[in-house]
Amino acid sequence: MCEETPPSTKKTRTSTTSSPTISKPKRNKDLNHHSWKSCNSVFISSTAKSYFPVIMKKNILPQQNIDLEDFALKTTLIPLLDARNLLKSVTLPGSYVKQVIHEFYCNLNEDFVNPAAASFEIVFVRGKLYTFSSTAINKFLGLDDDQDALVSEATMWKELTHGARKSQHPTNKVPSSILNSSYSILLKVVACHWLATSHTNTVTKAMGMLLYKIKNNVPANFGKLLVAQIAEFGKHNYKQNDNGLPFLVLIFQMLVSQGFTKKDAEQEEPLEPLLQIDNRHFDGKHYNDMETVVHQATHGVQGVIKFLKHKMQQNKEALLLVDQQRRTLEEECRNLIWLHEHATHSAQAEGVPSSSGVRFYSVFCTSLDQYVLSSWIGSVESCHVMVSRRILVLA
């Protein structure tokens, strides 16, 4: 049973179970649009609500999109990310509403990873249930549900450190300062988008494996990896510990893609600065495995151009939808005017003044038409300016 906000004055039994009761047949239906009509609550249970003060105090782990131009000009990583279909993951549009993220993590519970539970791989947010399975995340990011391949630990460390290490001892961790330049840069990217951490001075085995798989095109299930990290915060100890909240943009944008709408008064957080290349990745003990970056930069540029073409196509499709909406609104305005004219004639026949109403509808429809048209023109101009700037930079 959901906890009402504000709490009801009636005596009710408070459930300690944080998962909703859903019949078995409904589990196979699209739960993203399942509405809790009898519940206007933010929290799914009193237990979930009790976590809110603690969750609010947690740090957040920023999701910084990469600077495409900077990466293309200074590294050879853009073609690699493009080939793995990972460019969308590192250039997620939009931001997030912090309050919504806090509510999401409060309502997340241990049943999220229990296949037998009604709330398996779904999360309650403001009266609705949203799917956060590995398949759903992969689909959102444009990735396949690959099976994770096994890699020899010795092979992995030798590749990452240019032969300096073959293993990692618990008391002698591998420092990121000895990684090859490409892996040192990828470490920053992975820490933002796939294996969230604020500690990048040393490299864990899990981080090393993911870096190796990305660079060497070894199958990896990114959705499964992301779900596993999010699910940890369903545990009581993770609610209470000092771990920062990860993947805020991904979570919020996935909610939006499933129909979530924020309140009008809620503001999204400012965008994080773009992740750029630090020249220190090429200095010190880093082996520069991108020494030919000047000769190969054109390949990086081609990757950016391909990505921009894809984004331009998406913008064109969005503009077509806006244009269609404009035509629909114009037709609706004409219908409203026609209906109101008939209502006016009827009112005049009965001696009821209605000229003020006619003027109101006329002004309303004209303003609405101008607003939609200006929004459409603004979108086209913004797209043109963005593409022109990027082409100038790449040229």
Describe the protein.
- With 395 residues, this protein is mainly alpha-helical.
- The chain folds into two domains: 24-291, no CATH class; 314-394.
- Helices cover 50% and strands 3% of the residues.
- It is built from 14 helices and four strands.
- The chain has helices spanning 46-50, 52-57, 68-74, 77-83, 98-107, 134-141, 153-160, 181-193, 205-215, 222-231, 236-240, 248-257, 293-349, 355-394; strands at residues 122-125, 128-131, 174-175, 202-203.
- The strands form two sheets. It has a two-stranded antiparallel sheet with strand order 1-2. A two-stranded antiparallel ribbon has the order 3-4.
- Mean pLDDT is 80; it is low at 4-38, 293-297 and 390-395.
- It comes from Cuscuta campestris.
